[in-house]
Amino acid sequence: MKKRVLISDIAKALGISVTTVSFILNDKAKEKRISDAMTKRVLDYVKKVGYKPNQLAKSLRTGQTKILGLLVEDIANPFFSNVAKYIERQAYDAGYHIIYCSMNNDGQKAKELIQMFMDRQVDGFIITPSEGLEDTIANIRQNNIPVVLFDRYIPTVDTHYVVSDNKKGAYEATKHLLENENKRVGLISLYSNQTQMRDRLEGYMQAMDEFQLQSYIKKLQLGAPEQDAKDQILEFIVDNKMDAVLFSTNYLAVSGLKALKEHRIPLPRMAAFDEHTLFKLHDPSITVVSQNIEQLTKELIQTLVADIAGRSKELRKITIPCELIIRESSIVTLPEQIS
Amino acid sequence: MKKRVLISDIAKALGISVTTVSFILNDKAKEKRISDAMTKRVLDYVKKVGYKPNQLAKSLRTGQTKILGLLVEDIANPFFSNVAKYIERQAYDAGYHIIYCSMNNDGQKAKELIQMFMDRQVDGFIITPSEGLEDTIANIRQNNIPVVLFDRYIPTVDTHYVVSDNKKGAYEATKHLLENENKRVGLISLYSNQTQMRDRLEGYMQAMDEFQLQSYIKKLQLGAPEQDAKDQILEFIVDNKMDAVLFSTNYLAVSGLKALKEHRIPLPRMAAFDEHTLFKLHDPSITVVSQNIEQLTKELIQTLVADIAGRSKELRKITIPCELIIRESSIVTLPEQIS
DNA sequence: AAAAATTAGCAAATCGTTTAATTAATGCTA
DNA sequence: TAGCATTAATTAAACGATTTGCTAATTTTT
C-alpha cells in the first residue's frame, strides 16, 4: 500500500510553504500574487506525484462536502430509480455526489436519516416528503441547509420545490377518457394528503364536473399489503361497472392489472400516472400521464446548486407540464365488445 | 439558525475536559476508568442538549467514514434498483450509508468515480465491474480498501465476490425449454466477456449438448441503440424459425418483446434472466431465471462489513442459486398453434 | 533618499474530533 | 512512612486541509 501524498509532502519536496501550495491548488495564485514560475513548478509537481486532496480535511475546514442527500419514497420504484439516475448524472456534472436512502413510508427512519445526513454536513437535500415530515423539514431550513422538495411539496413550509403539473395531467387524462364515450369514469387513488395526490384528484374532479357526470373515487391505504389493494380495486371496478379508470400512481395500476388478469376480467379503459416499462408492452399498452423526469431533475439540481452557492435568494416553486401519452388501453375496442 | 453544540461546549459547561467527554461518548468509560457518576452526568447533559458529533471531524481523525461506494451498471434497471434498495437497507442496519453512481458503460467515468470515492475515503466498495476495470480494481486492493464484486467478477483479480449461479440457472432454463418439445432453442446474449454472460452461455451450451441439438447463439453489441437490438433480435428469431429463446438479460428480453409486438409476430416460447414487473403481467407472462436479491445483498454487506472490521482475512467467493420461475411464456400453447 | 506601495511568500490558527502520554490524588504494602 | 499501584481525570498532539495576518524584499512615489 503506497502512502498518500499530502500537501505538506509537496511543500517539503519543493522547499516552500503549504500555504503557497494550497493557494495554487485552489486557483488563488493570481489573487494571492503567486509568481507564474512558482505556480507552474507546483502544478507540474502535483501532476507528477498525482496528488489528490483529502476531501474530509477539506470539508472539515470549508464546511462544504459536495454531497447531496437524496431521500425518496422507494428507490426500487421505476419512477424514482429513473429520477435517481438523472439526478446522479446532473449532480456529477455540477461536482456533487449523492448519498441516498429509501424511506418506505417509515416516518421515523426518515427523520433519523435526515438528522444523520445533517450530521454528515450534506450541502443540500432533495426530498420527496411524506406526511408528518413538516417539522423535520422546517428544521432543516432553520439550520440554513438548502432543500428542494420534489414530486410533491408541503404547503405549510416555505421551500423550493419542483413538481409536475399534476392537476392538469389528471384533468387531461380524465377528459380523454370521457371523450371516448365512457360514462362511468373512476379514479383510484390513495388516502393521502400529499399535494400530488390532492392535485390529481382535483384534476379528475374538474373534468368530471365539466362533463357533469357522477364521480367514482376509490382510495386505498398507503403502504397496505398488495393483496388488499388488488381485492379492493377489483371490487371497485366490478361492482361499479366502470367504463374507464384513472390510476393515480403506476404501482396502483400495476396492482389493478394483476388483479384483473388473475380473475380473467376484461380491462376497463384505463390510464395511469407515471411511465413504466410494463405499460408500453402490456397488451393492450397502457395510456399514461408521463412526468418529464429529465427536465424535473435538471431544474431540481439547478435550483439546489444555485441556493448552495448563495446565488438567488428567492424561493423557486417550479411546475413542469406532464405529457399525456395515449396508447391502446384508453381507446381500443375490447375483445368482448367486438361481438 | 441555532449554533451546533460541540464537544468542547459540553466540556466547558460541565467544567471537565473534552477527553473525558469523548471517552464517554465512545463507550470507553469503563476501559478508561471514568467514574459512573461522571459518565451519567455527561450522558444526561449530552442528551439534554442533543449533541451530535461532527462526522467529518470524526472521520478525519479515525479514518473511518462509514460510507460505502456503490457502482452499478445502471441504477434505473429494475434489477439494480432493487439491489440498491436492499443494499441501502442492509447497510443502514450495519451503520453505513451509501454513495452511488451509474457507470452506463462509460469506463472513463467509472475510473474517475472510483478515484473520487477513494479521495472521499469510502470504507469499502461494491462494484458490478465492467470490462476494462481490472487495473482500477486492482488499484483499490493495493490501497487496502475492501471491495466486493457483484453480479460478475474479474477472474484475474483476486477479490471477494457475490454472484448468482448463472451457469446452472441458464442450464435449467434451457433444459426446461428443451423439455417442452422445442427443437430449435436459441440464446440471445451480448458481446461481453463478463463472467455472468460467459456462465449463462456455458449453461445454455451444456443443456444443448446434453440433448445433442444444434445451438443458435445471437450476440448483440453492448450499449447499442435499442432499435438495432430490436432489429437484430427479430431477424434472428424469424430467419432461424426459433421454437424457443433464452434471453441473457431482462432488457434484451424487453427489446425482443417490443420488436415482436411491433411487428405482430407471435412469440416463440421464451425465458429471460432477471425478474421484471413486466414479466409477471405480460400476456403471456414470462418465465424467468430469478436472482435472489435479498440473499445476494445480505452476503454482500456481511462480507464487506467483516472485511472492513478486519475480521476474516480470507477472500469470500460466494455463489447463490438462481430460481427458475416457470410462467406461461415457456409452456403455453400459442394462439396460432391451436388451429 | 526616505516614505509609501506593491510583490511574493510564510507562520500559525483553525475546523471538531480522537487518543497517547501524563499527572495528581488516593489506597495499599512492606 | 516511604514507595508502589491504582484510579480518575487532564494536557496536548494528531488528522490534513484552508485562510488570516504578517514580513521581508523590491519597486514606485515624492
Automatic annotation (TrEMBL), chains A, B:
Q: Which InterPro entries match?
A: HTH_LacI (IPR000843), Lambda_DNA-bd_dom_sf (IPR010982), Peripla_BP/Lac1_sug-bd_dom (IPR001761), Peripla_BP_I (IPR028082)
Keyword Isomerase listed:
no
> Is Nucleotidyltransferase included in the keywords of this UniProt record?
no
Give the HTH lacI-type domain ranges: 5-62
Name it. Answer: Transcriptional regulator, LacI family
Superkingdom of this protein's organism: Bacteria
Which UniProt keyword terms apply here? DNA-binding, Repressor, Transcription, Transcription regulation
Pfam families (UniProt xref): LacI (PF00356), Peripla_BP_1 (PF00532)
- UniProt GO MF annotations: DNA-binding transcription factor activity; transcription cis-regulatory region binding
